[in-house]
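Technical annex B. To support the medicinal chemistry partners, we prepared a structural model of the target in complex with 5-amino-5-deoxy-1-O-phosphono-D-mannitol, based solely on the information shown next.
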Amino acid sequence: MCGIVGYFGKRKASEILVDGLRRMEYRGYDSAGVACLHDGVIGLVKNPGKIKGLREKVDGSDLDSMQHAHLGIGHTRWATHGAPNEVNAHPHLDASGHFVMVHNGIIENYKEIKAGLSQHGIECVSETDSEVLVQLIAYCYKDNLEKAVSEALKKVKGTYGIVVLTDKEPGKLVAARCGSPIVIGLGAEETLIASDASAIIPHTRDAMYLEDYDMAVITADGVKMFDLQHAPISREVTEMDWDIDAAEKGEYAHFMLKEMFEQPSAIRNAIRGRLDFEMGTAILSGLDFSPRDTAQINRVLVVGCGTSMNAGMVGEYAIEEMAGIPAEVEQAAEFRYRNPIVTPLDLVVAISQSGETADTLAAVREAKHKGAVVAGLCNVVGSTIARETGRGIYLHAGPEIGVASTKAFTCQVAVLLMMALKLARGRRMPRHQGEELCRWIERLPELVEKVLAQNEAIKAVAEKYADKQNAFFIGRGYLYPVALEGALKLKEISYIHAEGYHAAELKHGPIALLEETTPIVALLNNIPGKEKTMGNAEECKARKAPVIAVVTEGDEATAEGFDDMIVVPDCPPCIAPIPTVVALQLLSYHIAAARGCEIDQPRNLAKSVTVE
Ligand code: M6R
């Protein structure tokens, strides 16, 4: 989704800004721009399309000749209000040309504000909700930028992360947040501002995260923080622990490929120090429940979106089966609006790789409001959901740059299994069973390595199906969420229309669509329900649909009569989602690669969905 970067220091601002935008490309965007201030002049370059185009436009422009412009702002825009063209791209200038601003989020009452400004003769030139905010700031300005910003923000409904500058006060940047992340990097004699740590880590590890309704004023004297009433506040400086190499794709053709191959080490990091073999349980300091607390949990509600919701469904099954606690997974946007029944005896687990997904964050707030115990399961350290839940578990998977989530899913499932184990041991699971589960969780990296070793074989299968337009994924039990996730992966990166179904559900409608050009990926692992899924795969075959059978090692006979086979290692049902999904990730990746798709940044998609 949209990305913000700001710079104040001694180096050439335009270069740092464009490089920062390049590092945030993975978030998804369709236009970009930068503005710098030098000698009382604001220079602005915007471009619909990719950063490469912006860079070419900046080279040789007024901005490029601003060798001594040491402060500026930049933005990548993922269009919401208005087409992705140059006028709608950020930064936005106000009508007087003295104020320039970048904005993430949505100004919900922008039409009202726009009409009010119009009555004062101030007209917007773009179709965006964002432009009205810079016009409003300019309108509110008397002699102090931060005062104008807070005046304007008090009139705004919606979400924002902004950075603004004016040639009337040339040595100042003002940033503010409500619902859209802003992190401030504190370097040696320089300050960086961004919506995403990836733009900052090449320059400094020391960071401050703005809370909602915080405002930061950045000058040559450093960073001062205020609330919207201008009362000074302070925020803790934390160290960002991500490695810069982790955010580069190195020898891999795509971040997605790199991240799939990182899964053994990512899972190792996710489980490190969290398995207690002696007691047959998991140590999750973010879930420091006593057995008495655990016994009192009435229900576990898991909320998330997309891949995180699919992982949550595996968690739902594991928690019910192992701990005997009723569990439900729910799409976060539904949860936030349908007035769900939540009680203080419910444990709500919010799952989010980015920790910034708007609907999941809103679900967290709704659950907290209703008194539930809320835990976050996030990858991005310091993210809003991680901070707002207060208690929770980090994945430690490292940065996930590819828009298609891969290592986050497998680490989420690994952590959910440990959560189920911990809850189960506090309730009804005997120690020996807990020990056995610990051993299987410990083996997850090895099981994933076995699947990755079949990369070439899976690629050969993928290439046979690269010309198809539709596909179905079917599974049962623990493999039902994997079928959903497999279909999601395929559709988002290859643009093949793919649907995941419970194997039994196919004949309640979707079977009408089957024909010889519609492949079925049947998850026929050797787990309970396999024979029934085999029957469903036979039904597909009888209707001439080609079947790719995913089977357990040693049980290859199951694939006889089907068209293609992918083999995954033998393991218990609750463990099977992880190696199986890795096979489906590789399948999707190679199909998308054969179709020449833009794998890391699929069209229309954003890495982090910070609007509803
Ligand atoms: O950052 P989150 O885990 O909250 O993101 C949720 C979804 O937007 C995300 O999983 C999305 O579905 C991915 N593109 C799937 O690959």
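Notes passed to the chemistry partners:
The longest strand covers residues 31-38.
The CA atoms of residues 280 and 435 lie 4 Å apart.
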